[in-house]
Every structure is written in C-alpha cells, then in structure tokens.
Amino acid sequence: MRAFTGGYRLSLNMLVMLDDFTPKTGGTLILSGSHRREAMPSSEEFAVGAEQIVGKAGDIVLFDSLTVHSAAPNRSADRRRALTLCLGRPFMKPQMDWPRYLSEAFQTRMDDRVRQLMGFKRPRGGQSRRILPAARALDLQGRSAMSAASERRRLDAVVASYGEAYAPFDAAMRSYMMRTLSPFFRDGPCLQVGCAHGDQTSLLAERFGDLTVVEAARAFLEAAAARATPGVRFVQSLIEDFETDDRYETILFSHVLEHVADPIGR
C-alpha cells in the first residue's frame, strides 16, 4: 500500500544486496522522482521510465519508501538475495513486534543500543511510547487533516498499488495475525473495518457467523464480496461516516489508521 504524504518523509527503504544485482539476475526496478507524485504511475509509464539498480554483494541502496519500485525477473541460474528493511520515524509502529518475538535469554544478551533499536526502550524523557498513524503524524507537523472527500479519492487511487491479490508473505501474515488475535475474540457479531482483497475477511467469516465489513474503496469491496461466504454484510463507507445501531463484540482494524481523515479526534 502507498499512502502519499507530500513533502514529509515518513520512512526510507534499505536494500542490502546479499548477491550481485545485475540486469540478468533481475536487479530491482525503480522510477526516479515518483515519491514526489501523489498519483501512482501506470504500468506502461513504469515499464518505460524505470531504471534498474545494479551492484555487488554487500552494496546498500537507500530510497524514499514512496518511490515506486518492483522486482525484475531473474533470467539467470544465479540467486539474487537481499535484505529489504524500512527505517521509519520514531512515532511509527514497527511492522515486527520484536520484543515479543525474542526470547528472554536473548534479551539479556543485548546491550542498551541494540535494545533501543529493537524497540525495548522507551523514547527520550522516559515517557511511554506513543504510536501515531501517518495521517495524524502529518497533522502534528502542521498539515491540515484530510477531508472525507479527498480521503475517498485517495483510497480509490491507491487500490491499484495493492496488485491483484496479496503476495504469499501477506497471506501468511494474515493467518499468523488470526492465530495471535484469536484469544481476544469474543463470541457474537464482528465488525471488520477495511478488507482490501478479502483475505482476512474470509478467515473472519470462518470464525464469526455474524460479520459486517466496512470498506470505502468499491474495488476492494467487490473483490472481497466475490470470495466471501454467504451471509457476510458489506457496507461501502468511511469508518468516520459509518452509522449503525448494531452492537459488535469484536471490532477489527487492520492497516486502517493511516487512511482515516482524523485518527485521533479533536
């Protein structure tokens, strides 16, 4: 997913080459300057204008995370391995919850610098960590909050950036998330906010007999509805505009906060 943030840089991608990146092994393609544009380029524009990153094993490339990029096919018998890392602002929640993944025995061997990098230590001043979604972070930087109308338009525009379906890694993460969250689910009606292609919707439908899905992007709504089991209720709406008298025992937001017009509320 690509959430345009104007001139405010939220994160950098770091590509660490473990093998040589060559045109034959399929070095990463990158469209220079695309991080300055809100609209996603067409596949045709990308095919014509993208440049290929080449380098030797051990080389490191840094670029704005909004820069449109893609893997290229490996047409050789050699492997093209890399580490793909993301360096974000301190208020952004890490994608991986390392404090929960790493054993206590491993934690005791870490020095203060490693503990801070892995998210174990609190920010300066001893204050509790405050995780803010991107939209609110921009508001705190002096930018006005997005209007509901512009938010709908942006959501419709970024649908194409997801591709036709989740990658195998994303599908595995959805299953992992369900296992992690299952102990906190409560019997009764469930509300899912944001469904994308419906991978998680299908998993939720297996768990809940009464499931309502709220999604603002029509393309995502149609894709999820096409694969959902009968009985799932779909509503096209921003969560800010969604009104109901129903009561839900479980409400699930997943990759949503960066899309809402006013995530904190004032």
Helix and strand pattern: EEHEEEEHHHHHHEHEHEE
CATH architecture of the largest domain: 3-Layer(aba) Sandwich
Q: What CATH first level of the largest domain would be assigned?
A: Alpha Beta
**Beta-strand residue percentage:** 15-25%
How can the largest sheet be summarized? 4 strands, parallel
Poorly predicted tracts of residues: 122-145
Count of domain modules: 2
Strand order of the largest sheet: 9-8-7-10
Structural category is alpha/beta
Q: Would you give an account of this structure?
A:
The chain is of the alpha/beta class. It folds into two domains: 1-88, Jelly Rolls (Sandwich), CATH 2.60.120.620; 148-259, Rossmann fold, CATH 3.40.50. The chain is 27% helix and 16% strand. The protein has nine helices and ten strands. A four-stranded parallel sheet has the order 9-8-7-10, with helices on one face. Strand 7 (190-193), helix 8 and strand 8 form a beta-alpha-beta unit.
Structural topology:
Elements (H helix, E strand, L loop, with lengths): L10 E7 L11 E2 L12 H7 L1 E2 L7 E5 L4 E2 L11 E7 L9 H4 L2 H4 L4 H6 L16 H7 L7 H11 L9 H14 L8 E4 L5 H9 L3 E5 L2 H10 L5 E4 L13 E4 L13
Parallel strand pairs: 7-8, 7-10, 8-9
Antiparallel strand pairs: 1-4, 1-6, 2-3, 2-5
Helix pairs in contact: 7-8
